From TrEMBL:
Residues 301-384 form the Apple domain. The chain crosses the membrane at residues 394-418. InterPro entries: Bulb-type_lectin_dom, Bulb-type_lectin_dom_sf, EGF, Pan_app, S_locus_glycoprot_dom, SLSG/EP1. It comes from Vigna angularis var. angularis. The gene is Vigan.06G034500. This is non-specific serine/threonine protein kinase.
């Protein structure tokens, strides 16, 4: 027996993964070859499982007399709790007497498994501490949580990571007002709209479909640690691949080490930033870039006036673990603040939409920078003046020289013209006399 949504879009019931004898409580598309989108993660070893809603408004999954899985509703209890599967794929528990149809005691959308559906959130509730994360199955025949998951880390400049346990595996960069810094090709499209919400209560990413007839989902692969977006092709009855992450080797976290930049179109994907050299030339030449790069000219905080910034264009900004953000100040003030703090290694706009606004500064070594050919954003990196190409003072001197030359030529020309006019006038007076 199953529970079907009103529009017969989704179905709740028990299923067995391929090559598994266990049964699990899950949700899948009703009219599509079994594609599971949510799992309660309570394994049953026979067909005796029973799901009920108790008097406190909690779902309870039992096998014989053993509780296999249950929900908790700490905020409030219901007088007459009911469970309902919505056409969005959201399994909800609500009070039947509640007038607000979107007021839930509990909802499965708060506990994603390996799939994100339209309307689901990926991020954090800052008020309650709840984290909405997408977690891969352990294997194709075991839907219990694996070691890979997408989650939001709450730095001063928050960003999403694909984590492998406690290890950062892939980073898409912080939201910069237009897109995630590491996905500059995240442009408007004909299939879905995406939104990034950040306020005092919550920070999350979500997407919605532009056409209700279209079916699309985000899903994590259990074995490859990749995330895919699929679109259902009704005519051919198959899931069409649309996008994936990571899409190439430059998406893997820190592949080029500190102060290295990854360029997928380069003959060697890792290069040191200008003004830096490989820490280990031997390892670097052997395509082991993990040690990263070091400065050609070390910075010395006692050398006031000898630091400046080099602008690197078209990048995914570095890991934001150690950052400071002020959304109210200009880029010039951001530059001054960074220059006056010797620990500040780089700065840029926190929001690049329009003419750009706000300030974000990085402290400590810079890691996981990616270079794009025709996209990305500017990053201003602190350097010793001797490493900033032509010294700024020299440029100023050259400008002043040309200004002086220009002025001298102007006055010389004016003098010659005036002298010539005077001579003509004197000759004219001489003839008249």
């Amino acid at each position: 027996m199953t529970l079907v949504s009103k529009g017969e879009t989704f179905e709740l019931g028990f299923f067995s993964p391929e090559n598994s004898k266990n049964r699990y409580l899950g949700i899948w598309y009703k009219n599509i070859t079994q594609t599971v989108v949510w799992v309660a993660n309570g394994a049953l070893n026979d067909s005796s499982g029973i799901l009920t809603v108790n008097s406190t408004g909690n779902l309870v999954l039992r096998q014989h007399d053993k509780v296999v899985w249950y929900t908790t509703t700490p905020e409030k209890q219901a007088r007459n709790p009911v469970a309902q599967l919505l056409d969005s794929g959201n399994l909800v528990v609500r009070d039947e007497s509640e007038t607000n149809s979107e007021s839930y005691l509990w909802q499965s959308f708060d506990y994603p498994s390996d799939t994100i559906l339209p309307g689901m959130k990926l991020g954090r509730n800052l008020r309650t501490g709840m984290e909405w994360r997408m977690t891969a199955w352990k294997s194709p025949n075991d839907p219990s949580p694996g070691i890979f998951y997408w989650g939001l880390l709450l730095y001063n400049y928050p960003e999403y990571y694909l984590m492998k346990g406690t290890e950062k595996f892939v980073r898409i960069g912080p939201w910069n007002g237009l897109h995630f810094s590491g996905i500059p090709d995240q442009k408007p499209n004909s299939i879905y709209d995406y939104n990034y919400i950040s306020n005092n209560d919550e920070i999350y990413y979500t997407f919605s479909l532009k056409n209700e007839a279209v079916i699309s989902r985000l899903v994590m692969n259990q074995t490859s640690s990749m995330s895919f977006r699929y679109v259902w092709m009704e005519d051919g009855q198959y899931w069409k691949f649309y996008k994936s992450l990571p899409k190439d080797n430059c998406d893997f976290y820190g592949i080029c080490g500190v102060y290295g930049t990854c360029t997928i179109t380069g003959s060697q994907i890792c290069q040191c930033l200008s003004g830096f050299s490989p820490k280990s030339a031997q390892a670097w030449n052997s395509s082991d870039w993990s040690d990263g790069c070091v400065r050609n000219k070390p910075l010395n905080c006692t050398e006031k006036g000898k630091h400046g910034f080099v602008t690197v264009k078209g990048v995914k900004v570095p890991d934001t673990t150690n950052t400071w953000v002020d959304e109210t100040i200009s880029l010039e003030e951001c530059r001054r603040n960074c220059l006056n703090n010797c620990s500040c290694m780089a700065y840029t706009h926190s929001n690049i939409s329009g003419e750009g606004s706000g300030c974000v500064m990085w402290y400590g070594d810079l890691i996981d920078i990616r270079q794009f050919d025709n996209d990305g954003q500017d990053l201003h990196i602190r350097m010793h003046a001797s490493e900033i190409g032509i010294h700024k003072d020299f440029i100023i001197s050259i400008k002043l020289f040309f200004i002086q030359v220009h002025s001298s030529m102007y006055y010389l020309f004016s003098y010659l013209v005036l002298s010539n006019s005077t001579m003509k006038a004197n000759k004219k007076r001489t003839r008249n006399s």
